[in-house]
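Recap quiz, item 2
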Amino acid sequence: MYNFDFVKPGSVADAVAALAGEEAQPLSGGQTLIPSMKARLNAPGSLVSLTGIPELVGVCREGDTLVIGAATTHAQVARDAAGDFPGLAALAGQIGDPAVRNKGTIGGSLANNDPSACYPAAALGTGATIVTDRREIAADDYFQGMFTTALEEGEIITSVRLPIPQASAYAKFVQPASRFALTAAFVARYASGVRVAITGASENGVFRWAEAEAALSSDFSANALDGLAHSAHEMIADLHGTAAYRAHLVGVMTRRAVAAAGS
Amino acid sequence: MPKDDGIGASTKRREDTRFLTGNGKYTDDINLRGQTYVHFLRSDVAHGRIKGIDSSAAEAMDGVLRVFTAADFDSAGGIPCGWQVTDKHGQPMQEPKHPILAEGKVRHVGDPICAVVAETYAQARDAAEAIEVDIEELEPVVDMKAALKDGATKVHDDLSSNLCYDWGFVEENKDAVNEAFNNAAHVVSLELTNNRLVANPMEPRVAVGDYDPWGDSHTLYTTSQNPHVIRLLMGAFVLNIPEHKLRVVAPDVGGGFGSKIYHYAEEAFCTYAAKVLKRPVKWTSSRSEAFISDAHGRDHKTKIELALDADHNFTALRTETYANMGAYLSTFAPSIPTWLHGTLMAGNYKTPLIYVNVKAVFTNTVPVDAYRGAGRPEATFQIERLVDKAARELGVDPIELRRQNFIKPEEFPYQTPVAVVYDTGNYHATMDKMLELSDYAGFEARRAESAARGKLRGFGIAHYIEACGIAPSNLVGQLGARAGLYESASVRVNATGSISVYTGSHSHGQGHETTFAQVVAEMIGVDANSIEIHHGDTSNTPMGMGTYGSRSLAVGGSAIVKATNKIIDKAKKIAAHLLEAAPEDIELKDGKFSVAGTDKSVDWSGVTLAAYVPHNYPLEELEPGLEETAFYDPSNFTYPSGAYGCEVELDPETGKIDILRFIAADDFGNIVNPMIVEGQVHGGLAQGIGQALLENCVYDDQGQLLSGSYMDYTMPRADDMRGFTVDHSCVTPCTHNPLGVKGCGEAGAIGSPPAVVNAAIDALHRAGHTHITHIDMPLTPSRVWAAMNG
């Protein structure tokens, strides 16, 4: 790790100001950033911690929407969302291990947009709104490919607003070494229709599976997916699975998520 | 019932208190006054020619003391290889120089080029980034078969090819073996890979070199399984330091699994640089560095064939194996695919004719050497996969085919056609025990229950033999070992009766401090708490060979028994004097010496005090004091064996395999501490199951390590296993060591991989996937799914 300055502002305004500094980077739970700094792959001039800003932490329900502060840890979401949005709580409770869940945050995960991370599936699968210090971004516009998002330089996620579905579930097939998602599906049923988001599988990061959404919107059952197969085009191929295997798992995990969500 | 702390008691491991409370003293805990830190600049290409090194900017940086390159080691030797294999034509293997720092060429990702020593580790690492190394990249040699083609790029320019040796065993049997195949009623063959593994001990390697200019003496603290071997290799062959000026200390060591047997360049560097700089020099490997600098394990590609007669008796076996040596020869690398592998190819069976061919190959990868089991897992995997395949092809029960060909209990000692003589064993008994514990009879009902849930259940077996307790020195000398393989012990009885034992074995997780104390406590009849076990310091232990090959109790324990017997003999003479009786009339029981048939006695501490305060003592006949040293050289290997059963459930939608039951019925001979034995088996099983399902060290075609961190190298975790049933009630004691023990450290890693793979293949066949005859390890979900849908 190289030397860097560290600041821990107490407000979003102060954080935004600090991020205007040269080579400044925001630090939330640090579960990706700190290991990459230790490997000397990342060398920020200063780190601006977002975990000392009270308004960025917490889970609360506003009508049919669950609002989660960006610096809320996975462990807290797993605990505090369990009553209002059990599908999301279950997803949060499967991320990494207890140490990761007690440090890593929803905002950090969404800002990083790792193609194998869990939270992007929940955000895209619910049609969430990503709230930043300067605007609101619909999930459908937010995710722009592997490690790429709509965030501008110095823009901070402050909260995530997730519409609470009638039923939802996350089915994750883990990459055996990292235990990130090798392929995972988040399925959410709303009065307006069903959303299906897939993570871990695509070279373009998290995506919606439109054919499955259409089929499930008319019949929310695993059987509705019979005969549907996802293309292996632009699927990730690596040590842990071929493109064809991941494409196959898209179907398997989606069916399992639907079955787990119930009706 | 055994005593609470004697032989046979499940005494709690006394060392665990300090380990579990964070009070172990590991090499990285050693910090000396004035200590400096070294960072190695390592090659990031697999193969290249070093055109130039400019370290001037680095040397000018804050805190930097010096940048070393190969030129600084002109007077030093290369890292030596401890075993010379002779090829099938009687010629010695090709043995390239292994320099401390790369000379002229880099030969694998991780090959150290420069070493930067600075006041702090961060300064050393910063400075290393300022070094400019001009490397002309060369075509890397990664695939073993491609490496042997005419015109292939050579890893070592001064060798004739990338072939280290082409070994035939037993070469004289080759024609007879081929003849048997020509006359066979059935021939079954299989091509398989034994996947390359990274040892991954919990504690990475560390070395601290220290130099005392007043005594011109060196001390190396290092994470080693065998400090005396390091002292010998480094002192005599690399740095030219005589033994009396070189102390090597291996304190608490957090696991080795073979990877800490070898003498590594970093050890020689720290020792040497400490003298140059007149300051201690410390190196602590990062985990990332460990992946590209610790010796790897396995990495064999094999074709194996079995000939059977019309009655399904095995008549001959032949194999052709390509064994990856990596870029340089690690300390014992040449011996692993040959003498620790070829000699085990009889397995538990009476196959009368065997021919083993091994081609050892240099590639631009990290050196490969022994890893838990070392050669024997490779042999067992081939045999037990092939026997299973034979049973399927012949349509017979795999258990019955094994039983039919097993060496029978009354046939021991048994001379195999591959040189070794098994002293004892009862393979029918271990097989029966395993099947009983498996509830094999209930399998079909469990399979039906899985099928109802859409899952495929299978049961796989494997029976293994291993040669442990390495080894008779005169034998291994004939086979090319450049060392003896005895073990040493000194037993120092203190004046008040407490006992300090110094063993040449080294404990890095095995529990010697507990087990060895149990042995001495049992022999003398004193409380084990009055016995302390010391190891790991060449300054106070007699020359010992260390711990590997499941040898500590069988060889090191035998040395302790021998030394303790000398103590008892002398103590009896002292007691005889005190009791005014003849030594032959003295009996030792429960720590008390008595004259047979009388009530006259003296207790242990009465004798030990007399030895050190010899006021009433036969000084004319007997020296004062009570301290004895013994060296034990075994007359044969030991041959642990066992039957392993594995029950898996396979998810046909994802290809994921879950191990539902694992049963190990081992014959380890006599047992000193059953709890420690069970723990050793658990650890071995975890690593064997890891190899079978999870672990894989993979290079791409450019020689880049794709599985260079835990993000991609899958370590087995607790939730990958649901517990094991471990039994060691089948006992055929070793006939040639005093404890009748065989060793248990590697068994789990040797016997489990074929059991797991056989279980997976069984599940697939029972579900109708009969076209799948083999899947290479690790059986990842992706591979299993591909086999089912290929």
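Chain A has a mean pLDDT of 97.
Chain A touches chain B through 17 residues (CB under 8 Å).
End of item.
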